[in-house]
Amino acid sequence: MEIKGSSPTTLTVRWLDRVQSAWRLLGFSPLGLLLLVIIGLAPLFIKNDYILRLMVVCLMFGTQAMAFDLTIGFINVVNFGFAAFVGLGAYTSALLMINLGWSPWIGLIMGALVSGLLGFLLGILTLRLRGIYAAIMAWFVGLALMSLVTVNVDLTRGPLGLVVPLFFESSKQILYFYIIFPIMIGTLVILRLLTRSHYGLAFRALGGNLDAARASGINPVKYLVMNFTISCALAGLVGVFYAHYFGILTPAMMLTRSTVEILAIAYIGGRGTLWGGLLAAFLVIPVFEYLRGLLAYRWIIYGLFLIVTMVFYPGGLVGVVFWIGNLIKRLFSRPSKGP
Amino acid sequence: MQLSGLLDLVIIGLFRGGIYALMALGLALVFGVMNIAQFAHGEFYMVGAYVAFFAAAVLGVHPLLAWASALVCSFAVGVLVERTVFLPLRLRSREGWVMNAFLLTVGVSFVLQNVALAWLGPSYRGITEYWKGNISITAGLNVSADRMASFVAVIVTIAALWLFLQRTRIGRAIRAVAQDERGATLVGISLGRIHTLTFGVSTALAGLAGAVLLPMTQAYPNVGFKPMVLSWYVVMLVGMGSISGAVVGGFIIGILESFSYYYLGGGWQDVVVLGVLILILLFRPSGLFGAEVKGIWER
User: Fold this and answer.
1) Under an 8 A CB cutoff, do A135 and B109 touch?
2) What is the rounded CA–CA span in Å between residue A59 and residue B217?
3) Interface predicted TM-score (ipTM) of this complex, two decimals
4) What DSSP state is assigned to residue B244?
5) Of A24-33, A52-61, B27-36, B239-248, which gets the smallest average pLDDT?
6) B-chain residues within 8 Å CB-CB of A121?
7) Per-domain boundaries in chain B
8) Chain centroid offset of residue A134 CA
9) Domain A46-332's class?
């Protein structure tokens, strides 16, 4: 085959091969795929706007948790200014739309680009040092962004809040669902492909033991900055959706609190698993929505969950899921193994 | 601007900076000895402020006694937190201790802050003054007696801590652990006790800061955030874990803050300090006083 040279079909075959190998790399389990399809088709059957709204919010938090997990779960650096990067994307798109009349669809790209660029610069500056420096500096950058937004009252209306036009004239939730759902799927696919390729190996190596990773020839700064930039760009992307979905932006969205909320969701889901954050978002947010009495204690609960999962159960929800899966497998395999 | 005005700004900066120095000292100590980047420092400030409020305003004790009770209570809370949260993590953690411990302090911070919110409510509790009167320093500048007293308290505490670290056996043990944990264990220092003590001392410093500043900042659940951010600026400025640098850095940040407040107005001070920090990280990543910081490239 090789000697004959390229026949007209090889190109398509190669293309198919590539798709196939990418699919294998993605490695979705049938159950996970089924769940994603169910979530994706749900709005066609659920006509209740309230539930759809809840689902949109869950998807939004889930996507953020996945983007956050890329840094904390793989390279072991906390992006402690995550909420500010979300806010930066949101304000970028909102200001472009209000002042220059740019469409929010271009805003999606611009928001991601601007957040990614800031993440890149910050990464170049701080990721040369040990991880904790990057975490604290990201936090400072977040605080500075927040005070910039608060101080520039004539541009952003400061704490009064900036009113942003929505994506569509109508506020039917199904329309917004089908914006955030592809964003979520795209994030999941990109991050899965990235982290299961050799890049992911490099990330994990750097997160685990930096010196050992360096000794085996991984350029730390390159991979760390790449990881950080992608995470920040995704944060900006979700931020743009936030802006044109809720229609109002205040500097309060950039508070450290918001970062900690994402952090808690990512950790409850299971660190370094990506889809754990999504799972946790779909559990945690409806629980707080239905048990409104708990809302006052929300931060105590988040804090306690953070402490407990970190100290006693680092596997998170995903760990529980795998544990149940293994239990079921053992239950079903026992009769065949028997004497 | 006249020279006396400039001098006033510097003096105001020094007064502000004293508190940052005290807080940053605690941060540097706990990072230097235990490798914990403490995010819950502000919550111990809050504990100190509340204890001082209840002692001074409700029980009506002497201010010095109120300060002492704040010191003791925040020390006790710190010891409790170390024993219940950080000790288990240290026993279990294998890799990535610094980042995990940092996130753990974030959890602790949220729990403490919101327990205070749920328990004591969001209202501001404060006293108007510990001592009456003003003290004039320069022609145009009057400082309230409380600010003067807080400044004196800060200086005395820093001096006492320095003596403690340099002259006593326990202080030497703390410094030994900061230099080399394994070596310290080999010569018979009990790591667990030193860690608990260090954490307690660090939180006691934050609590004292909260207590002496009670007339200026009041006590409410979120009160510790601003001082904590500023003390983190200090620690990043001078290099993490540099204990003597933290004191100098506290005064530098205080002066920087008072100048940026005067010339640019409120709100810009975060941006100004961040700019300075970025410059320092660009040209001198180990901070002003070059405590030992590991970059990625060097061992």
Assistant:
1) no
2) 40
3) 0.84
4) H
5) A24-33
6) none
7) 3-124+132-283
8) 19
9) mainly alpha
Highest CATH level, class, for B3-124+132-283: mainly alpha
* Range list of H helices, A70-164: 82-95, 104-126, 131-151, 153-156
pLDDT in tens, B89-121: 888 876 778 888 888 898 899 889 888 888 888
> CA nearest A72 in B: which residue?
B99
The 3-class secondary structure across B119-181, one letter per residue, is HHCCCCECCCCCCCCEEEEECCEEEEHHHHHHHHHHHHHHHHHHHHHHHCHHHHHHHHHHHCH
Q: Could you give the percent of chain A with pLDDT greater than 90?
A: 11
Block residue for tokens 């033991």: A209
Nearest CB to B37; choose among A132, A260, A304:
A132
pTM: 0.85
Chain A residues inside the 8 Å CB shell of B296: 127-130, 210, 214, 220-221, 224
User: Quick one: average pLDDT of B139-156?
Assistant: 81
Contact B103 A306 (CB under 8 A): yes
Reported as a pLDDT band with limits 50, 70 and 90, residue B6 is: confident
Alpha carbons B253 and B174: distance in angstroms, whole number: 27
Please give the Cα distance from A93 to A237 (Å, whole number): 10
Residues of chain B in contact with residue A127, where contact means CB-CB under 8 angstroms, are 296
Give the C-alpha distances (Å, rounded to integers) separating A275 from A60, A67, A190, A310, B100. 13, 10, 12, 18, 21
List Cβ neighbours of A71 (8 Å cut-off, separation of 6 or more): A77, A78, A79, A227, A228, A231
Q: Which helix (H) or strand (E) holds A183?
A: helix A173-196
Higher pLDDT, A287 or B270: A287
Distance from CA of A142 to the nearest CA of B (A): 10
Predicted confidence at residue A334, as pLDDT, reads: 65
Give the Cα separation of A162 and A254 in Å (integer): 14
The residue count for chain A = 339
List of chain B residues whose C-beta atoms are within 8 Å of the C-beta of residue A208: 95-96
- A311 and B92: CB-CB below 8 Å? yes
User: Is A300–B114 a contact, with Cβ atoms under 8 angstroms apart?
Assistant: yes
Enumerate the domain spans of chain A: 46-332
Q: How far apart are the first and last CA of chain A?
A: 50
Average pLDDT on A113-119 reads 92
